[in-house]
Design goal:
Distance between the termini: 41 Å
Helix content: 25-40%
Structural class: alpha+beta
Number of strands: 10
Strand content: 15-25%
CATH superfamily of the largest domain: Rieske [2Fe-2S] iron-sulphur domain
Shape: rod-shaped
Number of domains: 2
Strand order of the largest sheet: 1-2-3-4-9-10
Bound molecules: FE2/S2 (inorganic) cluster
CATH topology of the largest domain: Rieske Iron-sulfur Protein
Length: about 260
């Protein structure tokens, strides 16, 4: 019975560690861990009861045996029971450590948007834009031609001075620079641009992104820059994308493996 309980605790603890390593449902990991702890708790209780001396126990006093050469008593470690304990300690150690690994960040799956190389940049009304259509300091929401309203493709097109010290100057023809409109904190639309300090603001939790430095967050809870849309001037003189955004759009917990 005792050995069965201990073996059950070991198997459940190992199964819990394995489930955590395989990123199984947390409920499964928790249930297996609960089973392991329940089994070892019952085992410890029954072992303690077995060790308790009965009330009427009297121990006869004996003369200590005198060891003869070649007949000295030997100390043993409890045979199989002792070795099972080693497994139990290892199994519970694994069940404790492995779930900690799952606290790390999961790799994001890069899910693209409908922006492709050569796609013309158009307004919400579907009008293609030339490099001088936006006034200096102006901002407008843009989409790839043919995909107006595609939410994850929404971008903010901003016009800054052509000689502004942009981090990615080559991606901003004639001062036209574009970033994803979806805040990297919690996905709200970044809606406000202040040209005095080249700053984009998210109204939800007041994150601020520096346009000059690749929309890097400089205040608020966002920790990742708004992905940039690389722009060029097409052969017909209209603004076009050079491809998709420079990174995944939206908050870090979007587009993760389930
Ligand atoms: S969603 Fe933009 S700061 Fe929170």
């Amino acid at each position: 019975m005792n050995t069965t309980l201990l073996a059950t605790a070991i198997v459940a603890a190992l199964a819990s560690a394995g489930a955590a390593a395989a990123r199984a449902d947390p409920a499964v990991v928790g249930l297996l861990a609960a089973l392991a702890f329940a089994a070892i708790t019952i085992w410890a209780g029954s072992a303690a009861l077995a060790l308790r001396a009965p009330d009427d126990c009297t121990e006869p006093r004996q003369r200590p045996a005198i060891a003869q050469p070649g007949n000295e008593p030997t100390l043993t470690r409890g045979g199989v029971f002792g070795r099972i304990w080693i497994f139990a300690i290892g199994a519970f150690g694994l069940a404790t450590i492995v779930p900690i690994v799952s606290l790390g960040r999961r790799a994001r799956v890069a899910v693209g948007t409908v922006w492709t190389a050569g796609a013309r940049v158009v307004t919400e009304q579907g009008r293609p834009l030339r490099p001088d259509d936006i006034a200096l300091g102006g901002v407008t929401t843009v989409f790839p031609e043919g995909h107006v309203g595609a939410q994850d493709a929404a971008a903010l097109l901003i016009r800054v001075e052509d000689n502004a010290m942009l981090t990615n100057h080559a991606w901003a023809p004639r001062g036209n620079v574009a970033f994803s409109k979806i805040c990297t904190h919690a996905g709200c639309p970044v809606a406000i641009y202040r040209h005095a300090d080249y700053m984009l603001y998210c109204p939800c939790h007041q994150s601020q992104f520096s346009v000059l430095f690749g929309a890097r967050p400089v205040a608020g809870p966002a920790t990742r820059a708004l992905p940039q849309l690389k722009l060029a001037i097409g052969p017909d003189g209209y603004l076009v994308a050079r491809g998709d955004f420079s990174g995944p759009v939206g908050p870090d917990d979007w587009n993760r493996p389930a």
